[in-house]
Amino acid sequence: MPETAASPVLEIENVTLAFGGLTALNGVSFEVAPGSIASVIGPNGAGKTSLFNTISGFYRPGSGHIRFRGEDITRLPAPRRAKLGLARSFQNIALFRGMTVLDNIKLGRHCHLHSGVLDALFYYGHARREEMRLRADIEERIIDFLEIDHIRHAPVAALSYGLQKRVELARALAMQPQVLMLDEPVAGMNREETEDMARFILDVREEWGITILMVEHDMGMVMDISDHVVVLNFGEVIADGVPAEVQANPEVIRAYLGSGNVDELRRRLRDARAAA
């Protein structure tokens, strides 16, 4: 299917995923518009991380299709998807703790490097030039952008949790993504760290033109910065739309509260914003 200006950058069509007799995703469908911030929310066990793992290629769906810029990538392995422009962070920090911040970030560009084995072994010619370009790009753009210049040579293990989350975002940005998938980017953060991360996510979209797909439990943040919200419950989409529509949807309210009390859900959202 040819890509047009109006085409979604990412399409999830009737995706089903099962582990033995357990159905994690059941006919999940939604689209992500280019240049948008889209969030996937839902109660614990709703299938959000399973969906992320399926989109990024760690799981293969039993049925359905995943399209990236009009190309069907359902059967492509994860490294191929990364090279096409799908990058992600992880719910549990997945950094190399014994390595420096800079070295962790540089690993994100690995899927785009072209040096051969001999070039890398002897570190001359093309390999050295490529390494220098990579380092300059990361130091001049990503490290400055995320305000982590002061820790570039620090080992990851010595950093606070919030800074480790920022380094993981930097590594994902080093992959030069067109769609950046963030799995609970502010989980476990304090109010100041959450506000900083929300600002960085908005700036990634505004200044770099990267589309964001995010799984997050912080409802205040989700409703504040998202253009589009998809709600999962028991592996199925129960709502799909702009934040105002979603938070007033009776199915969403029942999924979170077990009742139809719209005012109670709104109160919870206000409390979440105040606590963030």
Describe this structure in words.
With 276 residues, the protein is α/β, with parallel strands linked by helices. It contains eleven helices and ten strands. Strands 6-7-8-3-9-10 form a six-stranded mixed β-sheet, with helices on both faces. The protein has a four-stranded antiparallel β-sheet with strand order 2-1-4-5, with helices on one face. A hairpin with a 2-residue loop joins strand 1 and strand 2. Mean pLDDT is 84; it is low at 112-123.
Task: Give me some keywords for this one.
single chain; 276 residues; alpha/beta; Rossmann fold; 2 domains; six-stranded mixed β-sheet; four-stranded antiparallel β-sheet; 11 helices; globular
Reading the helices and strands in chain order gives EEEHEEHEHHHHEHEHEEHHH
Secondary-structure arrangement, i.e. CATH architecture of the largest domain: 3-Layer(aba) Sandwich
Over the alpha carbons, how many angstroms does the gyration radius reach?
Answer: 19 Å
The low-pLDDT segments are 112-123
Please specify the SSE layout and strand pairing.
Layout: E1 10-19, E2 22-32, E3 37-41, H1 48-56, E4 63-68, E5 71-72, H2 78-84, E6 86-88, H3 101-107, H4 117-122, H5 126-145, H6 161-174, E7 179-183, H7 191-208, E8 211-215, H8 219-225, E9 228-233, E10 236-241, H9 243-247, H10 250-257, H11 262-275
Parallel strand pairs: 3-8, 3-9, 6-7, 7-8
Antiparallel strand pairs: 1-2, 1-4, 4-5, 9-10
Helix pairs in contact: 3-6, 8-11
Quick structural gist:
With 276 residues, the chain is an alpha/beta fold. The protein has helices spanning 48-56, 78-84, 101-107, 117-122, 126-145, 161-174, 191-208, 219-225, 243-247, 250-257, 262-275; strands spanning 10-19, 22-32, 37-41, 63-68, 71-72, 86-88, 179-183, 211-215, 228-233, 236-241. The radius of gyration is 19 Å and the shape is globular.
